[in-house]
Amino acid sequence: MKIDRNFTKAKTGAYGELEFKTTTSEIRNPDGTIVFKLDDCEIPAGWSQVASDVIAQKYFRKAGVPSEVKPVKEKGVPEFLWRSEPAKGATFGGETSAKQVFDRLAGAWTYWGWQGGYFTSEDDARTYFDEMRYMLATQRAAPNSPQWFNTGLHWAYGIDGPAQGHYYVDYQSGELTKSTSSYEHPQPHACFIQSVGDDLVNEGGIMDLWVREARLFKYGSGTGTNFSSLRGDGEALSGGGKSSGLMGFLKIGDRAAGAIKSGGTTRRAAKMVIVDADHPDIEEFINWKVIEEQKVASIVAGSKMHARYLNAIFAAIKSWDGEEVSAYDPKTNDTLAAAVKDAKKSAIPETYIKRVLDYAKQGYSSIEFPTYDTDWDSEAYSSVSGQNSNNSIRVTDAFLKAVEEDADWKLINRRNGEVAKIIKARELWEQVGHAAWACADPGIQYHDTVNAWHTCPEDGAIRGSNPCSEYMFLDDTACNLASMNLLTFYKDGQFQAEDYMHATRLWTVTLEISVMMAQFPSKEIAQRSYDFRTLGLGYANIGGLLMNMGFGYDSDEGRAMGAALTAIMTGVSYATSAEMAGELGAFPGYKKNSKHMLRVIKNHRQAALGKSDGYDALEVKPVPLDHANCPDQRLIELAVGSWDEAMKLGKKHGYRNAQVSVIAPTGTIGLVMDCDTTGIEPDFALVKFKKLAGGGYFKIINQSVPAALEKLGYGSAQIEEIIAYAVGHGSIGQAPAINHTSLIGHGFGQAELDKVEAALASAFDIRFVFNQWTLGEDFCTKSLGIPAAKLNDPTFDLLRHLGYSKQDIDAANDHVCGTMTLEGAPYLRKEHYSVFDCANPCGKTGKRYLSVDSHIYMMAAAQSFISGAISKTINMPNDATIEDCQKAYELSWSLGVKANALYRDGSKLSQPLAAALVEDDEDAQETLESGNHHEKAAVLAEKIVEKIIIQEVRNREREKMPQRRKGYTQKAIVGGHKVYLRTGEYEDGQLGEIFIDMHKEGAGFRAMMNNFAIAVSVGLQYGVPLEEFVDAFTFTKFEPAGMVQGNDSIKNATSILDYIFRELAVSYLDRTDLAHVKPEGATFDSVGRGEQEGVSNVQTPTENAASRSLEVLKQISSTGYLRKRMPQDLVVLQGGMGATALDTSSDAVATLETIVSESVVATGTATTISARDKAKMQGYEGDPCGECGNYTLVRNGTCMKCNTCGGTSGCS
């Protein structure tokens, strides 16, 4: 093949016009310990610190690299392509320069390309070598991770090792050959699809699959398998008896994958499990992860319940003030009896209760019962199954039509083909929607759509995919991926289409050479990869490109642009494949599939022509290229021309490859290329945090924003102000309310102002600057007159002390630290807001985000021109419904999308609600973006918990009671003295005041009780939690005391205050542990009804009537009077967490307490926040990276990637 120079010149070569820099690469654990450090590594000058860290930490070879090499002469090979081996006396170490990596990758490709006859002349080979190195160095494109790991090690350094059980087909003889070396033939493939037979122990069977998977996981690749061939539960076995079904084996495979994941490469979820919708066990499969997540919730709640109740028994014994021997006897120790009773009611095993009593008798004062949390890598998750794979179900057009028609659906036995069970298709579909809504699995693969675009149906149907669902082809095949960075082809306001087409051609050749040179983990995969030669060329950064061009992701222009670029890429790639077929021959499987492949090419071309009809054998029509809305008509002409060329050359020569393109998640390689967005994804934030070489981060605007603003016609001064609105001015000089002038009025001198300004440069919230550590203790105590005790109080807010209001502080914060959003920015016109829409709302004031449908429409626009499929997560807000999930799946099917994975915010226990945690305080998110500022961590934790969970209880203004308020009056007699307790409630039912009156008591005592009630009321109105009063005053002892008459729940009190706060605790906190008779029923005074007990005495009202009644009840009912026995939808989790639906079969308030305790102990004194919650506030997923431990995982297609070290759970 002839290769032209496009990016390089023969005189200067690959690097002649590029600058390189020397830098230090360092990655640290969250605790500050160093994971990886390399000094003096040579990196291209334009690369970011993150990209530098990723290539140095992940892709530099760490050992076996000789200090000096010598060439090994090879007949018929140009001298510059001779492979190398260690020179005599060479020392060994690791790679230290990115040039070494680029040279070995491109060198190996060129070497094998020369051997395979891919270049017309030596000049063509040299040109190819330079062009490929240039594209790698300028971040124009990158191959998948296994290429970086393995390719060129033998060619460049002579690194080798014993064979690992791999195979390859010799490119000259066509013979299947067993590898004798581990690196001579590299293993460059990331994606595998493997088959499994309905056999237990033989080759190709179930247990053999776990071994084959292990070989792939060990070397960092991912694999997917369709398990539908395994017989269902109850099907007959050959030796008699019945099968235990599919699920038992899936759980074994899940455990095996988890064990390998835990060592070596420590990748997560690089496995796909697929089951057809007509499998007898499909219902169990759909609900597998839902049930496993429920188990985790039970383990977490149960462990905490054990710890609480068992330690309550210890506390009851400790509080006993009588004879020691009686302390352990529930018959004499009433408090102990109540604690034991409560423990039994909560199903704490009597064995454990007895054990605690025995411990207490032996002198122990507490028990450390192990409690679990919902961290993904916690013991709770590791004790359940289904956590090491992505799950998908295969649905046919017939099934989806049965759903539409509410028809029956038959589940078919695997062995005899008989009907195992008949269910309603819509009921099964509802289970799918619920499972996706509840735990983000399973995804959907549209079987008939996938196979309608199948180029080789004569060799069987496509049944599986890789873990991320972008590679879909025959079982026992592999795909190596590469992705181009679209933004690097955008220059001077124009997309450089010729450069893009040139790059597409060269990368198609590269991936084809990679098939030829590769070794594979099994005979079947080696043979089939040779026979079909599938490639996976794709792109990244479409979201960044569209924003730079001034087009919204959810716009007709944006979709047309994405579709045109996809059409050009795949069209040119197929044309290149046909060109190679003309010189080297078509792929071996082409001959018997030629009619089908040309039909598929014709359908792609028809879509490129913009036609809505004229498709051959397509039940679901693709979305055609939108010629009218494409902003660059040159791209339309090139797209049509490329498919004309692909069709013409294909008819003449056939094709070298059965497939050429996919759109992968581009996880790690997206970081290496410094992509703003990965794959086909939109952006996730407008303000990002740039990593510094010396550690730490600083805040920058997304690099696409200024370019977009300029493209939209804004002037430089306007752009500066818009950007400053998002990232802040970094100075308090001109800030509203809190500025130099107002601070001077409070006694600040120039020295103090200078200290403040210096600290603001790296601040995320101005409150963290105004403290004794920045200003000095002397200045704070002497000049500002702040007592030392206050200064040392972690809840002390110096700015509030100086008299600034919360509004003043917020306004100054927005000016100095930015709003993290462009909504409301000065000069920015509302019609341009859509250009900057992201996958999630930005900042604390941002409301806009991309709709669910916008993700699907973009996928559909590109899918028409992709050989394989698209790996993409469809983001859904937390308030999305089950029906929304079903509609998203149905829309995807109707538009010709091949696969779909949904992620509803908060659908994973291990990933708390992103929006709910962040929506109240974006300052927290900003501060938490830096994981290296340990000094700020403790202060930050207190502030975050206070702001997010407790809603600034300590610093808030007094909340006045409504003029007309609800409440209740309780009359009781305590030790012969009448007590009247009257409560007043806020509109939401929270207690806000109490009145206490004593009948016929002396004036002094009555006045004291009255004033005590006023003091408590004021405290409640300033936000002191009722729990604090309850804990302080229950069990206090003074007269009058004794038996209580007239109260249904409290029968004894040690004092008036003990009685009052027991009553309030029972009524407003549902502290039934403080009641002697637990309230039950819909109201506190429900009574038994004999034989009618348990039978409803009212008819179920209509939905409208119930809704109206509920509204009335909300207006007139007193929370305290009802003892919190209220209808379930009145129970709302406060603190910005949103309404939480509760299981009506359980105690609503107890469930509520469990949920709250999962996030934080909301008592007003909490001072810590989990690393997971911090990560969620930063916009990350909330899971720790398996490689570096940092909580910087972001969702990437259907996989996850780490923004710190570049680790990915997928296969790219």
Write structural notes for this entry.
The chain is of the alpha+beta class and 1212 residues long. 41% of the residues lie in helices and 12% in strands. It has 43 helices and 31 strands. The strands form ten sheets. Strands 7, 10, 11, 12, 13, 16, 17, 20, 23 and 24 form a ten-stranded mixed beta sheet that branches. The chain has a five-stranded antiparallel beta sheet with strand order 27-26-25-28-29. The chain has a two-stranded antiparallel sheet with strand order 1-2. The longest helix has 31 residues, at 288-318. The model is unreliable at 262-267, 912-955, 1081-1103 and 1126-1169 (pLDDT under 50).
Q: How many separate helices?
A: 43
- Estimate the helix proportion, in percent: 40-55%
Whole-number mean pLDDT = 84
| Terminal Cα span | 28 Å
Outline type = globular
**Major pleated sheet:** 10 strands, mixed
Low-confidence stretches at least 5 residues in length (pLDDT < 50)? 262-267, 912-955, 1081-1103, 1126-1169
Determine the structural class based on helices, strands and strand pairing: alpha+beta
DSSP summary, beta strand count: 31
- Mind telling me the C-alpha Rg? 34 Å
Beta-strand proportion:
5-15%
Produce the secondary structure layout.
Layout: E1 20-28, E2 34-44, H1 49-59, E3 65-66, E4 69-71, E5 84-86, E6 92-93, H2 98-115, H3 122-137, E7 141-143, H4 145-150, H5 153-157, E8 167-169, E9 176-178, E10 191-193, H6 206-218, E11 222-226, H7 246-261, E12 271-276, H8 282-286, H9 288-318, H10 324-327, H11 334-345, H12 350-361, H13 379-382, E13 390-395, H14 397-405, E14 408-412, E15 419-424, H15 425-439, E16 443-446, H16 447-452, E17 477-485, E18 490-491, E19 494-495, H17 497-517, H18 523-532, E20 535-540, H19 542-549, H20 556-584, H21 590-608, H22 633-653, H23 667-672, E21 687-691, E22 697-701, H24 704-711, H25 716-727, H26 740-745, H27 750-760, H28 772-775, H29 777-783, H30 788-791, H31 798-801, H32 806-817, H33 852-863, E23 873-876, H34 882-894, E24 899-904, H35 914-918, H36 922-928, H37 934-949, E25 969-974, E26 977-985, E27 991-998, H38 1003-1021, H39 1026-1033, E28 1042-1045, E29 1052-1053, H40 1056-1068, H41 1103-1116, H42 1148-1159, H43 1171-1177, E30 1193-1196, E31 1199-1202
Parallel strand pairs: 10-11, 11-12, 12-13, 13-16, 17-20, 23-24
Antiparallel strand pairs: 1-2, 3-6, 4-5, 7-17, 8-9, 10-17, 14-15, 16-24, 18-19, 21-22, 25-26, 25-28, 26-27, 28-29, 30-31
Helix pairs in contact: 2-3, 2-17, 6-7, 9-11, 9-12, 14-15, 15-34, 17-20, 19-24, 20-22, 20-33, 21-22, 25-32, 36-43, 39-40
